[in-house]
């Protein structure tokens, strides 16, 4: 979940760096009436639902293939689909171009691997809430504005509530994996933006996905081995790839052609709430009142950071 949708992965990264998609603000097509105005919103919500329900399906697959095996299946299937659809050109790129796309792939693979390790240990909604702190921290660091430090403090209050005074309630290893995934998400945002400037259309995304898949393959084979070749497991892995990668990226690309980046970024701040809903409906992961309040604080902090950042850009 980022930057220029024509060349980089999940839309959720816009939570942290709305400037990365600000060039698309004026690219939207004028809507004719209320129905046309609702179309991009439906696309964004559809993309978010697809990503988080895909993560819920992945959690169901973990007992069969393991967390590392699920990551391998998802990245490998998504890489194959993107290679077929995008057909990226391999010639005409400099060493710097390849270095950037490799770094992007490493960040993407690390982000997915760490997140799925977290998902194997803590509830989906809480995992996404902790993960989103990475992009939020990047946003605060990039803006260097006092108001965003205050938003970060609000998010920290939410994290303390999630921990309930000690992350042992959540499984400290799972919480650590989610926070590390957030750090990789921040790195992913930086390198996806650079990839978007160096590669046309979705070529950089397709190539980076291949890098991530190749890096995850030994880990998946080591953990799951022949389990990855079971037809039902392969089918579920392909479903996770479509739900968590291919479909949401397509929907979000369509939405960004019609929706201001600031509005898009605020909507992406709702990812933890969508994840909590998916966890409840599919995985029976009910949240306590305290957990729900904590997630709401992190969502509010993310939305506030985006709003204050885009407001500052307009004044400037």
Which tags fit this structure?
316 residues, mainly alpha
Written account of the structure:
The chain is globular, with a radius of gyration of 18 Å. The protein has 316 residues and is mostly helical. α1 packs across α8 and α5 runs antiparallel to α11. It is built from 11 helices and no strands.
How would you concisely characterize the structure shown here?
The protein has 316 residues and is mostly helical. It has helices spanning 33-86, 95-119, 124-131, 133-143, 146-163, 172-198, 203-224, 231-256, 261-268, 271-283, 289-315. The longest helix is centred in the first third of the chain and has 54 residues, at 33-86.
Topology:
Blueprint: H1 33-86, H2 95-119, H3 124-131, H4 133-143, H5 146-163, H6 172-198, H7 203-224, H8 231-256, H9 261-268, H10 271-283, H11 289-315
Helix pairs in contact: 1-2, 1-7, 1-8, 1-10, 2-6, 2-7, 3-6, 3-10, 4-5, 4-6, 4-11, 5-11, 9-11
Rg, please?
18 Å
The beta-strand count equals 0
What is the ordering of alpha helices and beta strands?
A: HHHHHHHHHHH
Low-confidence stretches: 1-32
> End-to-end distance, in Å?
28 Å
- Tell me about the largest β-sheet: none
Percent range of helical residues: over 70%
> Helix/strand/pairing class, anyone?
mainly alpha
Shape: globular
How many individual helices? 11
Q: What portion of residues belong to β-strands?
A: under 5%
- Mean pLDDT across all amino acids: 76
């Amino acid at each position: 979940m980022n930057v220029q949708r024509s060349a980089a992965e999940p839309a959720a990264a816009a939570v942290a760096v709305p400037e990365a998609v600000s060039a698309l603000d004026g690219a939207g097509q004028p809507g004719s009436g209320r129905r046309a105005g609702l179309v991009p919103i439906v696309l964004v919500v559809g993309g978010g639902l697809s990503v988080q329900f895909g993560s819920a399906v992945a959690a169901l697959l973990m007992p069969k293939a393991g967390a590392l095996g699920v990551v391998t299946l998802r990245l490998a299937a998504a890489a194959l689909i993107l290679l077929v659809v995008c057909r990226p050109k391999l010639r005409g790129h400099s060493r710097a171009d390849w270095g950037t796309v490799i770094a992007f792939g490493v960040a993407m693979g690390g982000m997915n691997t760490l997140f799925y390790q977290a998902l194997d240990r803590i509830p989906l909604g809480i995992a996404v809430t902790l993960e989103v702190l990475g992009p939020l921290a990047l946003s605060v660091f990039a803006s260097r504005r006092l108001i965003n430090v205050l938003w970060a403090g609000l998010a920290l209050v939410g994290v303390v509530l999630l921990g309930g005074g000690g992350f042992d309630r959540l499984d400290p290893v799972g919480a650590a994996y989610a926070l590390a995934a957030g750090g990789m998400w921040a790195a992913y945002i930086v390198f996806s933006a650079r990839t978007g400037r160096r590669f046309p259309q979705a070529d950089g995304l397709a190539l980076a996905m291949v890098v991530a898949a190749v890096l995850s393959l030994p880990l998946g084979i080591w953990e799951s081995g022949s389990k990855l070749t079971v037809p039902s497991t392969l089918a579920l892995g392909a479903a996770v790839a479509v739900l968590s990668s291919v479909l949401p990226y397509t929907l979000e690309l369509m939405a960004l052609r019609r929706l201001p980046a600031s509005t898009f970024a605020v909507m992406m701040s709702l990812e933890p709430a969508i994840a909590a809903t998916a966890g409840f409906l599919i995985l029976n992961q009910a949240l306590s009142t305290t957990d729900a309040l904590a997630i709401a604080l992190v969502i509010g902090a993310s939305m506030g950071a985006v709003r204050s950042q885009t407001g500052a850009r307009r004044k400037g």
